[in-house]
Write a structure and sequence with these properties.
This protein has 124 residues and is an alpha+beta fold. It contains 2 helices and 8 strands; from the N terminus they run E-E-E-E-E-H-E-H-E-E. Strand 1 and strand 2 form a beta hairpin.
C-alpha cells in the first residue's frame, strides 16, 4: 500500500487508499477519530520526545488497523525510527474498536439485582 505525503507548515497530511490522516503536535479533539503516537529516544533510558496526533479527516468508516498502519508508516519511513508507542485514547471515536480488540465483546448479565459486565474469555 502506498501513501501520498503532503507537508503543510506544522501539519502533515497522509493520504492512503482507505483514509486521509492529518498529523500534528497540537491538542487532540475529543470526539473525533484519532490516535496518538509517542516518539521516544534512548538516553540512559526511554525519554519522551514528542506526541503526534493522527486525526482522521474524512467521515468514512475507518478502522483502528488502518490508522495504526499510517502511524507505523509515519514513524518507520518518514521519521526513520522504531522508538514509538501507538495509543488510541478514550476520547477518540476509535476507542470502542480498540477496547473490543483488547478485551473482547461485552455481555450484560443481571446477577443479584445488580448488573455486571462480563467480557468474553474472562471469568469471575
Amino acid at each position: 500500500m502506498g501513501y501520498e505525503v503532503i507537508n503543510e507548515g506544522t501539519e502533515t497530511l497522509i493520504k492512503g487508499t482507505e483514509l486521509v490522516v492529518r498529523v500534528h503536535t497540537g491538542p487532540a479533539n475529543d470526539g473525533l477519530a484519532y490516535g496518538l503516537g509517542h516518539l521516544y529516544m534512548v538516553k540512559g533510558g526511554f525519554v519522551p520526545v514528542r506526541t503526534y496526533v493522527f486525526e482522521v479527516t474524512d467521515l468514512a468508516e475507518v478502522t483502528v488497523e488502518a490508522v495504526k498502519k499510517i502511524m507505523d508508516f509515519f514513524f518507520s519511513v518518514l521519521l526513520d525510527t522504531e522508538w514509538y508507542v501507538k495509543e488510541i485514547p478514550p476520547g477518540s471515536r476509535l476507542f470502542q474498536q480498540e477496547a473490543r480488540r483488547l478485551y473482547g465483546e461485552e455481555v450484560m448479565e443481571e446477577q443479584y439485582g445488580a448488573i455486571d459486565i462480563i467480557r468474553s474469555g474472562w471469568s469471575k
